[in-house]
Design a protein that fits this description.
The protein is an all-alpha fold. It has a domain of 65 residues. Helix content is 72%, strand content 0%. The protein is built from four helices and no strands. The longest helix is centred in the first third of the chain and has 26 residues.
């Protein structure tokens, strides 16, 4: 019986921590310089890890999309807002994440 109660308490605590994490993602603002670095990281990972990256879009056009995204980041954004902006670029690659 004690084991069952311990498991229930653990589940409830883990659910609460995930809710706090999601709340932080939707509220905490990140500085534009940090967000632009994140965009560079995403672009570099995609270039290194995706063998068919330029299947639906040329390298020049994709670089232009990422550059345009970086120029639009001129004020602090939440993680979710950055994710939405990244999705607009990734959608041109014909990928779903």
């Amino acid at each position: 019986m004690n084991y069952f109660i311990s498991v229930i308490c653990l589940l409830l605590l883990s659910t609460n921590s995930k809710a706090q994490y999601l709340d932080e993602m939707s509220v905490k603002l990140h500085q534009p310089a940090d967000l632009k670095k994140d965009v560079y990281v995403v672009q570099n990972i995609l270039e290194k890890e995706n063998p068919n990256l330029y299947l639906y879009i040329s390298k020049k056009d994709l670089n232009h999309k990422f550059d345009s995204l970086r120029t639009t980041i001129n004020q602090p954004l939440t993680s979710i807002s950055l994710y939405v902006k990244l999705l607009s670029v990734i959608s041109y690659m014909g990928m779903v994440i």
